[in-house]
Amino acid sequence: xxxxxxxxxxxxxxxxxxxxxxxxxxxxxxxxxxxxxxxxxxxxxxxxxxxxxxxxxxxxxxxxxxxxxxxxxxxxxxxxxxxxxxxxxxxxxxxxxxxxxxxxxxxxxxxxxxxxxxxxxxxxxxxxxxxxxxxxxxxxxxxxxxxxxxxxxxxxxxxxxxxxxxxxxxxxxxxxxxxxxxxxxxxxxxxxxxxxxxxxxxxxxxxxxxxxxxxxxxxxxxxxxxxxxxxxxxxxxxxxxxxxxxxxxxxxxxxxxxxxxxxxxxxxxxxxxxxxxxxxxxxxxxxxxxxxxxxxxxxxxxxxxxxxxxxxxxxxxxxxxxxxxxxxxxxxxxxxxxxxxxxxxxxxxxx
Length: 351
Ligand code: PMP
What we know:
The chain has 11 helices and 13 strands. By secondary structure, it is α/β, with parallel strands linked by helices.
């Protein structure tokens, strides 16, 4: 540890992302990427940008992309914010919108970046236990707080909270910002975007990394009341005026406009998820209901760590968390039919 480090960095336990292996041979079902490629129209739009245009800075306000997202959701462009992946959008949200004197509330089992951002920005936090079925109980989120955040569907559980519950949460909690992180919503959830004009304290975050197969491009977005968006713009413009490059702006816009391809990929993933769920069931797994592109499951007799290690030895990577209460669970991304089959064959060799 260097004596030149700030006190915050000395204490920081950075977020550890899932493994990104260098070997293409592996069946990678550990970080919830989409098994299908990006929209061909998005690829064409990105190819078109590659040329002399890259000499020039991109539009710092991302007006065209924000306009496209606004049109898609029938909102105004000043209700839309975009950033370099939803992780960056989230970083700005923690900076700009959560009150620092009171605890930020989030579930005890959730996206593990949230406590890291709290530490980084000096925000106190309180982890609210999920119920015995791993569901979020909105009645538990009524205490004094400096904001509330959770993914819907939640990660890594995949469990979905109904829009009526989110409405209830917003009704009782109108003093602080409620952030719904919808990274996985397109795989079976109901988006809270439809509520943003009713609740000035609601911010919805989405990403193009999952349902639009663009994890490598790094594009995330937030929608909400224009005053919330203005706060995010202020932080962004104090940090990096050009978070999205020209390739990302073009690719993201074309991907959002290609609704048919998006729907087709989501429908396939949802159908394959349900097929995989029943296959896992017959192999002795209890599988939580999932509205995401992954399944969260526990084997009825074998230890999750042993199963993960055996799969890894066979070239199949799934996610195992060394965390209280879920350390006997595996989170398995839904892959192509072929990838899911490789997973099942590997399990059959193990059992
Ligand atoms: N929120 C949740 C709940 C996630 O699981 C992820 C992906 N790890 C993200 C946000 C970040 O996604 P990205 O930065 O790729 O947009």
